[in-house]
Structures are given as C-alpha cells and as structure tokens.
Write a structure and sequence with these properties.
Length: 411
C-alpha cells in the first residue's frame, strides 16, 4: 500500500507545475472520489463538494449540524520564476525571456537546469485554459568559473534582475506565438507562464528512502490533505480542506489565506445546517484547524542552525511547529490535541522550534486562526533545501502525514 500511495505523490508533483495545476490535480482526485463541483454558494451544498477558483480550492465532507469543524489547510504556490507580460529579448545572438522572481527563491538552484513552462491563458471571452510544456525550453546559464575568479573566496553573487534572465533559443522568438501554439488558443488576451525544472519527481538514495522534487513545499501537504479527505469516513464533524494560493508572498489576495474563500464556505455550511449566528460562533470555538506546511529538517552539514532539542529528523514523522511570537499558531492546547491523536494511532510526531537568532518563516495557520477565530495547529513534513528548484524530504513522512490528517479528521 505505501508504495502505490507514494507513487501517487510523485504523479501529483509531476502534474502540478503551477498553483492552477495543483487545483486541477486536486479536482481530478476529488472527482474520482465522488465530490461534486459547486460553482455558486447560493446552490444547495452537496454532502461531498468543492469550490475552486484560480489557485485556490475549498472542499468539504458535511457532518451533522451538531458536529464541529475539522479544517486542514495548505498552500498551492511555491517560489519560482514567472514570465513577464512583454518578455521578448533578442541580444548577442540569443533569445531570452524577461522574468519576475516570485517569493523567496533560492536563486542559485535555478542555474543550469532544463526548464519547462506552464500556466494558463485567458482568451478574449475571459475563459481560462491551462497548458503545460514539460520540455527543455529554457535555461539560465551560470557564468564560467574562469570569468568569475572570486567565486571561491567570496561566493556566488547573483543580481536578481540581471543574472536570472533565461535563454530560450538562438533564433529570434516571439513568446506570444509560442503560447498560442502550446495552448491551442488563438485569441490570447493575457497569460500566466511559470518556469519549472522538468526533472521528474523521484525516490532517492541507496535505500530509496528519500524523495526529490520541485515544489515539495507545499504540494506534499496538499497531496496529503486531499488523500486524507478522500478516504475519510462519515463523521458527525464536518471535514473541510482549503488549499490557498499566494502564501509565499504573504497570503493577501482573493485566493490567499487572508482572502474570503474559506470563511464563505464555513458560513454557507452553517446556514445549510440551520445554525443561528451565535451557534455558528460556538461551533467555530469548538473546532480545530490543522495548518500543514513543510518544516525544516535538521541539516547534517549545518546542525548549528537548529535548536538542538527541537530539530526534526527526516523520516521520523511530521513536526508540530511552535513559536510564541505567533509565526506559528500552535498553542499548548493544540500541541496536546495533536500529540494525543498521534499517540492513539501510533504515528511518530516531532516538534520544531527555531533558534532565537534564526527567525522562522510563517504559514497560513496564524492567518486562518485570526480570520475565523478557530484554534489552529501548525504542522509540517520535515524537508531539506526548502525553496530550492529541487527540494528533498523523506519518502515515509508524507505517508505519516496522511495517517495523522486522517486521524485528525475523525477525532
Ligand atoms: Zn510553505
């Protein structure tokens, strides 16, 4: 069973080069499990349903009006390079693409990789069409060591604007012509185009106990959450999945965690369950949100960067993330709740806290807690190379995460 399950994650990663594709992949998976697409919240809510918009999807499995909510959240976006609206450059015998850097990209990791391009096209009627070209189309060539003699002493210095411009041919090219061909849409009004490493996701290591891929942060969590929701059995609690876009740039957008999609679905479910406003608020107060976003595993070459008592190991289970300054939402009550779930199902669980002089990132957990007034627990699969074009985690930890999420939905 675990082997087929982990190949499901590898397929998911290969099919999902952009947040739009993550949503499409989630939709395909939910459709086969009997979930029904809802286009308007004014319609009757099906027992199993989902609402999707751009890079965000909210899905649910309705429980009874007396039950509480069990929400699992993750994010669909990953740091990457995105083609600008007027990208064509032709100079010194090469065609290049003007790009914008999205989120906290580890710039060096994008050098000398074969890059594909994927995204969506908006036609003149406003309809959206996804496309993906996982071929070696572009590359950012690194400067030869002979022309950069100081690199050994001073390290690699990359100018974010000048040095990250990919090459994509030696003849003069027009990007919009390529977009028309690859998408099959002739009246392209505008496009989104994201670069991605075309190397497929793969198991790694002499014992194949590791997993390497782009976008593990945070598609490993998206995949785990969809698997848990699909396989959940009926419960008095209502299970909700939310995969938000734009976490890597602060979550402030209509499809981000600070936007309204989750709160609208939660309100709509309360109406369907016949709850008055006060009862709805009481339900939120007795509910839980599990916010899943990958954590930093301890790096064997840089152990000093970690708080030694709270440094998660690869393949030792998901890590609960704790931060009193509320970069993570987990309280002592939340830690106790998730520990008791893990213990009763024999799921390994670790704890992550950062060093006081190495501030941690944040997640959608504190934002969701603030928006809904619901208690959130931040948790993540431990990984290395976070925000690299190709990241790495343990092959067992995503399976532990599915087990933990499944148990969380049933508790
Ligand atoms: Zn993340």
């Amino acid at each position: 069973m675990p082997e087929t399950l982990i190949s499901g994650l590898l397929n998911w990663l290969n099919q999902s080069p952009t947040p739009f594709h993550v949503v499409q992949t989630a939709v395909t998976s939910l459709d086969t499990a009997g979930f029904v697409h809802v286009s308007e919240l004014g319609d009757e809510m099906p027992a199993l349903g989902y609402l999707a918009h751009d890079g965000c999807i909210v899905a649910w499995r309705l429980g009874s009006p007396k039950g509480a909510l069990r929400i699992i959240g993750a994010h669909t976006d990953s740091p990457n390079l995105r083609v600008l609206p007027q990208p064509d450059i032709y100079q010194l015998g090469l065609s290049q693409l003007a790009i914008e850097i999205y989120g906290g990209v580890l710039l060096n990791s994008w050098l000398d990789r074969d890059l594909g391009i994927a995204g969506r096209v908006i036609d003149s009627n406003g309809a959206s069409h996804l496309y993906s070209a996982p071929q070696a189309l572009a590359r950012i060539p690194q400067l030869a060591i002979h022309l950069d003699r100081e690199i050994g002493d001073k390290g690699l210095h990359l100018d974010r604007h000048q040095h990250m411009t990919p090459v994509w041919g030696s003849s003069k090219q027009t990007f919009i012509d390529w977009i028309r061909r690859v998408s099959g849409v002739t009246d392209v009004a505008a496009f989104d185009a994201h670069l991605f490493d075309i190397t497929p996701a793969s198991l790694l290591g002499i014992d194949e106990s590791l997993l390497a891929s782009g976008r593990l942060d945070n598609q490993a969590s998206c995949w785990s959450a969809v698997e848990a929701l699909r396989s959940a059995s009926d419960s008095e609690h209502t299970s909700i999945l939310v995969l938000n876009d734009h976490e890597e740039v602060g979550s402030n957008s209509s499809t981000g965690a600070a936007g309204p999609m989750l709160s609208r679905v939660v309100s709509r479910i309360a109406t369907q369950h016949g709850l008055r406003e006060g009862q709805h608020f009481d339900r939120l107060a007795s509910s839980w949100c599990l916010s899943a976003d990958n954590a930093h595993a301890i790096h064997p070459n840089y152990p000093e960067r970690h708080e030694p008592r709270h440094a998660p190991l690869i393949n030792n289970g998901p890590a609960v993330k704790v931060n009193g300054n509320q970069r993570y939402a987990t309280s002592a009550r939340g830690l106790a709740h998730i520990r008791s779930i893990a213990q009763s199902h024999n799921i390994p669980l670790q704890t992550f806290a950062s060093r006081n002089n190495v501030p941690c990132g944040s997640t959608i957990g504190p934002i969701t807690a603030t928006q809904l007034g619901i208690e959130a627990i931040d948790i993540g699969i431990p990984q290395l190379s976070m925000h690299s074009a190709r990241e790495m985690c343990g092959a067992n930890d995503p399976l532990h995460m599915v087990s933990l999420m499944s148990a969380f939905l049933q508790r």
